[in-house]
Amino acid sequence: MKKKTVLITGGAGYIGSHAAKEAERSGFTPVIFDNLSAGHKWAIQSGKFVKGDLADRAALVRVLRRYRPVAVMHFASHISVGESVVDPQKYYKDNLGNALNLFSAMLQEKVMYFVLSSTAAVYGDPIQVPIPEDHPKNPVNPYGDSKYILERILTSYDQAYGLKSTFLRYFNASGADASGKLGEAHAPETHLIPLVLDAVAGLRKEITVFGTDYPTPDGTCIRDYIHVTDLAAVHFLALKHMMKTGKSDFFNLGTGKGYSVKEVIDETERVTGLKVPVKYGLRRAGDPPRLVAESKKAQKVLGWKPKQSSLKTILATAWKWHQYFHSSAFSQKH
Ligand code: UDP
Asked: What is the residue extent of each domain of the chain?
């Protein structure tokens, strides 16, 4: 039987590139659509690549006509919470405008399944932790708000046009492909784990812990870290489920277990065998003390089992990738 094709926007980015790899393992053919503004050519390690911009509706129609995907997985997005506060226009204009373009091209070409990279940021400051999927949605920054608006647009599009979608609300995506040849490379990097590894490797002076006076056992913020390969795998389980049931749905993607910033640093020392230079600083604006997913729904409904999301495996794979990314072997190859 001919494999079904999935269009992966942002497939040259961190999570999108891991999803493209996972597509092949899950029996789909990935076609990557990316303008390479934040993604990397070297991250495209699976499927076909079409360089294009989501603002270009004609290019979207062309790619849908040419490859006739059964579904679109939409990873292309600005992702920085802090930046969204200082430059909300970028988030509302691109994250929403581009997605609307994509939906309109999909409806025209009758591609009726959509998987949205959503975020725990749709919940805002949680009133209940672990956070269940039916927790009130109260995003506190334009990034989370743009994703929540997309969820609502998609709900209306399902009712009106029958466009089915699954919202996957990511907690903290982390780790790297087991090959050690694919991983996270944001510029600028703002995420904890790659920054801790930079500090361990001597590429930065230290890691600053943002706040030590939170109401948590060790005073630092707690997050639910989920391995990017486990995260990628759910996308295909969710797509298969949606195609089987013909219904839209939504899931938290986390493990249900939280680790503090200090615990991440301690585990990094164990995994690398090196000392992390640490500076204790002030809180970062807008960081809730504890973000942990109620994670049973994806496991129960989709049969998903996180396999690589122990903190140890997350850090070991991220470290393997970090060493390769900063090696001469990488720079000679790319
Ligand atoms: N963090 C930190 N120092 C840094 C970067 C992050 O202490 O240089 C903390 C941050 O305050 C949060 C956690 O690490 O509590 C995870 O932050 P990250 O930016 O990786 O992900 P977020 O939870 O914001 O999506």
From this structure: 4-174+226-253, 192-223+256-333
Residue 280 Cβ inside 6 Å of ligand 1? The answer reads: no
Q: Which CATH superfamily is domain 4-174+226-253 in?
A: NAD(P)-binding Rossmann-like Domain (3.40.50.720)
Judge if the beta carbon of residue 210 lies within 6 A of ligand 1.
yes
The SS3 assignment for 44 reads coil
Residue nearest atom 11 in ligand 1 by C-alpha distance:
210
**H runs (alpha helix) in the chain:** 14-25, 57-67, 81-86, 88-90, 97-109, 142-161, 192-200, 228-245, 261-272, 296-302, 311-325, 328-333
Q: What is the mean pLDDT of residues 124-151?
A: 96
Measured CA to CA, the distance from residue 109 to residue 105 in angstroms comes to: 6
Sequence-distant (6+) residues with CB within 8 A of 41 are: 12, 334
Q: What is the pTM of this model?
A: 0.97
Structure confidence by residue, pLDDT tens digits, 37-51: 999 999 999 999 999
pLDDT in tens, 188-232: 889 999 999 999 999 999 999 999 999 999 999 999 999 999 999
- For β-strands 225-227 and 172-174, DSSP reports them as parallel
**CATH class held by domain 192-223+256-333:** alpha beta
Counting from 1 in the atom list of ligand 1, the atom nearest the Cα of 191 is: 20
Q: Which of 55, 170, 186, 41 is nearest to 115 (CA)?
A: 170
